[in-house]
Task: structure prediction
Amino acid sequence: MKIMKEREKKTELLFETALELFAAYGYKKTTVDDVAARLSMTKGNLYFYVKNKKDLYEKTVNHALNQWKAAGQKAMESETDVVSQFRSMAIAAIEYIENNPTLRQVLMNDPSIFTISANEDRFRKTNESAMAILKAVLEEGVRQNIFYPMDVDHISEYLYSVYIMFLIKRYVKSESSSSKTMFREALELTIRGLVMSPVTTTAAQTTSKGGKS
Amino acid sequence: MKIMKEREKKTELLFETALELFAAYGYKKTTVDDVAARLSMTKGNLYFYVKNKKDLYEKTVNHALNQWKAAGQKAMESETDVVSQFRSMAIAAIEYIENNPTLRQVLMNDPSIFTISANEDRFRKTNESAMAILKAVLEEGVRQNIFYPMDVDHISEYLYSVYIMFLIKRYVKSESSSSKTMFREALELTIRGLVMSPVTTTAAQTTSKGGKS
DNA sequence: TCCTGAACAATTTAACGAAATGTTCAAAAG
DNA sequence: CTTTTGAACATTTCGTTAAATTGTTCAGGA
Result:
């Protein structure tokens, strides 16, 4: 499918290997020696690929997050209408992590991966590009008069946050509830809140002012 | 308004004082001596009111959370229809914390107050009783055929989690976005997802199956 | 371009006494 | 009987050290 240069293949192997070790031992307990040894190279040589240990970790996690994002995007692109695109993207992303215990473990070891706080950079770019995909779907839905008019920047950020919250509840802490069915129910509730009724009225700015008795 | 016994008044003062100190210095840096001194008593006497330092902290935070909850409940009870009840409760809760920098600071110092994870008890009971109020509104809305039929346990937990997520985003981390307007937009989106269209059709089990072309 | 291995720098760990803080309780005050 | 005191006691933190581990650099070689 993909043609890859020798260098890329090696780098990819590096990230996959490192991810397994970070998952198994956590950031602190995995030594750069551990990673180098698993790849049958010396630790000195690792510094040919990454700047330092922190850089190794960030590149490794970024690599994993990008694959995750790609899975959601692929599912989205296989649908034609925006509602299905929205739904499939959400479901695919959940199923990806469901089937990826290694990445899940890394998230459990370091929940701050999702932080997106202003001061920290780290994975902001990756998170933002995932949000951008979501935003594009929302924009298209609004353009087609299928979704309510909205501030797509705010709502995409909001929905992304809700999605992250779900992930944390379900996979980082493993809470009693927050089951898969709960995710589906919340997803359908959200879609109802997004989608205008089949009758495409233009500019339905009903801020629900009129109290129905 | 409220008639209080001497003992209750003193306990209340204790919690208010402790909250200020925990807000200013954090759990670790506030000594029981600090709290006792501020109340002009010896630290030994504090142990007449609480079991130990941890207990002092938990009772203090619980006291504050309960007042917060009461503010939301009061706002809810002043409305007559479920949609307004839902909306007012959410808005009142946000405004309460908006106007309460001390409690806000305590939450910033210790975000795990909201955790509700299975292993930890701490504030579970308080959180659960807040969720119960929300759940009651949802149940009433479903009963009156104003809200879509739903699993109220799942959806109330979901909505409570979304609410907590907002609080954390806005007050614990202080993120660039997640503004007040974003909260309002998300609230309206949620209400649209909850409320059936004015035409009260019975058992609208539309799982959005029919693809609209 | 990629890799080695040894030198060097930085961080972590363990140990330990001193200081600070948390907790208990007999006795006293109200 | 309830509330408070104050000193004794228990526990945890802090500051300091030295050794061990781990991270990083780099001259040189495949």
Notes: Residues 199-213 of chain A have pLDDT under 50 and may be disordered. Residues 31-33, 43-44, 47, 52-53 of chain A lie near DNA strand D (CB under 10 Å from a C1').
